[in-house]
Amino acid sequence: MTYEQGVLLTGSAWPQLSEEKKLAVLQAIENHAAFTCGRLPCPVAGKFLYTGSDGIVLGAYDPQNQVIYVNSSQFDADAKYGGDAQALVTACLHEGRHAYQHQAVRGLVRQADPAQVALWKDNLADGHYISFRQDPRAYYQQPVEADARRFAEEKYAQLAAQRQGLETQEASLAAHRALFERQLAGEEAQLPQAACFAQDEGEAGGIAMR
Questions:
Q1: Residue 112 DSSP symbol
Q2: Residue in 32, 8, 31, 28 with CA at minimum distance from that of residue 20
Q3: Angle 65-116-41 (CA atoms, 0-180°, nearest 5)?
Q4: Which residues contact 12 (CB under 8 A, 6 or more apart)?
Q5: Spatial contact of 62 and 69, defined as CB atoms under 8 Å apart
Q6: Confidence label for 192 from pLDDT (cuts 50, 70 and 90)
Q7: b/e for 95-115, b at 16 or more Cβ within 10 A?
Q8: How confident is the model at residue 112 (pLDDT cuts 50, 70, 90)?
Q9: Residue-wise pLDDT tens digits, 55-84
Q10: d(Cα 11, Cα 25) in Å, to the nearest integer?
């Protein structure tokens, strides 16, 4: 699946997609995000993540296996976020940014800002990362989470704009195609009439068809 195909499927078609197709869409988006950031892409897999009355974990990044997990419980159309492509796509982009951060800390990303990488390295050091359960506010404010959240929001806004442009382009192509087909059908319908008219003229006025 191409990135453009994936972007189009994040629109009205999303709720009807199978889990396999949704993962394919997310993988196409992850591949594109990785390419534009100059990092190695990660496999995107569905996995049941915490889903409770106090909240739902939509995504997670496994730095050891370099895999992005998206909550498989939210792929069903009846789930809370089952029809919300934005939530799951943003989660995938967010976790992809964590992959970038880890790769930057390991020196695998050349164009990363050294000062920012230093902040990430300290934040990701043993005992320095703050989980949501430890302190929700500190979790959101720490460097790696604030950066991933900003990145995902900006990238999704770009993706939504791209989808709108692609949908407009497809609608225009469909309209031109329909017009061409109507014109073609009209020409085909007129051909027998013209032949009959010429034949009638020939019979009535002595003009032979050639």
A1: S
A2: 28
A3: 30
A4: none
A5: yes
A6: low
A7: bbbbbbbbbbbeeebeebeee
A8: confident
A9: 899 999 999 999 999 999 999 989 999 899
A10: 11
* pTM exceeding the 0.85 threshold for the entire prediction: no
Write out the H or E segment, with its range, that includes residue 44.
strand 44-47
- 22-36 pLDDT, tens digit per residue, is 999 999 999 999 999
| String of DSSP letters for 45-96 | EEE---EETTEE--EEEETTTTEEEEEGGG-STTSTTTT-HHHHHHHHHHHH
Question: Which residues share a beta bridge with 61?
Answer: 68
Of 73-82, 120-129, 165-174, 178-187, the least confident: 178-187
CA distance 3 to 91: 17
Query: Which one-letter amino acid corresponds to residue 89?
Result: V
* Token output for 9: 């499927």
32 within 8 A of 3, measured Cβ to Cβ = yes
The amino acid sitting at 115 is: A
Task: Identify the sign of the CA torsion 78, 80, 86, 90.
Answer: negative
- 107 pLDDT higher than 60: yes
CA–CA dist 121, 155 (Å, integer): 23
